[in-house]
Amino acid sequence: MTGLNEQSREPFKTGGISRIQEKNRSLILEAALGEFSKKGFSGATVERIAAEAGMSKSNLLYYFPSKEAIYNAALAHILEVWLAPLKTLDPQGEPADELAAYIRQKIAMSATYPEASRLFANEVMQGAPQILPILETNLKRLVDEKCQVIEDWIAAGKIRRIDPVHLIFTIWATTQHYADFSVQIKALTGKDLSDEDFLRETEQSVTAIVLNGLGITWPQAEQGAE
Amino acid sequence: MTGLNEQSREPFKTGGISRIQEKNRSLILEAALGEFSKKGFSGATVERIAAEAGMSKSNLLYYFPSKEAIYNAALAHILEVWLAPLKTLDPQGEPADELAAYIRQKIAMSATYPEASRLFANEVMQGAPQILPILETNLKRLVDEKCQVIEDWIAAGKIRRIDPVHLIFTIWATTQHYADFSVQIKALTGKDLSDEDFLRETEQSVTAIVLNGLGITWPQAEQGAE
DNA sequence: TTGCATCTTGACCATTTGGTCAAATCGTTC
DNA sequence: GAACGATTTGACCAAATGGTCAAGATGCAA
User: Fold this and answer.
1) Nearest CA among B118, B145, B144, B87 for reference residue A190
2) Distance between A18 CA and the closest CA of chain B, angstroms
3) Strand D nucleotides where any atom sits below 7 Å of a protein CB
């Protein structure tokens, strides 16, 4: 279990990355995301990832020195995009708009990148062996910052008093749930976020609960139109 | 991947289960819960489970015919208790009381049996290979029934109009999140549900959002007292 | 105590799997 | 097209692991 930041720099001595390198890395990372999110770290096999990426196991190991390195690379690859939405929460904006937009983005992420959500969930559930340091530094810094934004909204009387961190957890939990537990959701409703109507429905419901939960007069936009 | 319901009936030909059988089964299931929830199905090893249970691998395999059988038994063992709280949702009760009680129970479950939550989450995230049939039958029946209860509350004007199934998902997501992502929560807040104050705080926050989200006049009981 | 079923274990096996390596092929530059 | 580095692969290895088996230990009833 080495650090997350180390990348394989073996194959290219010169500064540039050949086109074939870039393509294969990308193929590998995509295949790795699929496999790791589906089977977990231990359940995934290097051979299957290689097959999925359309190359031999040996060749894959030419690009990444170990299974763990592939895993870390896949994780790092999704992490930034996965945590990006929170950064857009604007202190200047209206809480209703900002939070609704944040929820919408998070649900869109769950719909578009369910595998990323599951990979992340898997990692954290196993104790975050690879990304714990990042959670404790980068993510904590970001969350602290946004908690302050929420605090300010509370102080300004714009939303009901609540512990900001629990609000963030609630939004994370509800939105990611639809990706992580999509099988269960499909078993119970017959649909999941890949269904457009269900996506809108989910967006409506989650947004309604959270915003009303915060005492925000929530216009429930375009509800009449649909 | 055989069915979930089959249990190892090898060791005892006679109807009764010896005391030692009962004890060892229990030890094994407890150890299995710990290992499977920590490492996932593939990551867990029979030998470690056996060691944790204080016996040899061979002996463990005397009680359960295979790793998968242990997994299924552990899963079946927690499933009932895990889904029990929803059953207590009483159509006769007041929504505020009933939902608050349900949320409290679910959070208590997350605090008391976080491993069960993670085991369940893991199973579902991997596509519920073992319990999908149960989700589609037993759980669906239960959820449908409780959705009707919520519908009735809506029809009676007791809570805001919302799709009941999303309300249930929201409660599941928020409450289980504190068990499944406890490492992340600890990284961000320094605490988790094992901390009594944090437990109360979580209960308050989640209940407040959900109940207010449903437009329920929520007394916020004993908030002044604490 | 004896006898038998239950329980326990170490030795062993077959398979899976992460990773190595030398050889072969491909691509590019001169 | 020669040379050389980049890319690709099959053969192979060592460790881990799920599971079997025969033999031994233990508990219990008569």
Assistant:
1) B144
2) 36
3) 5-11, 16-22, 28
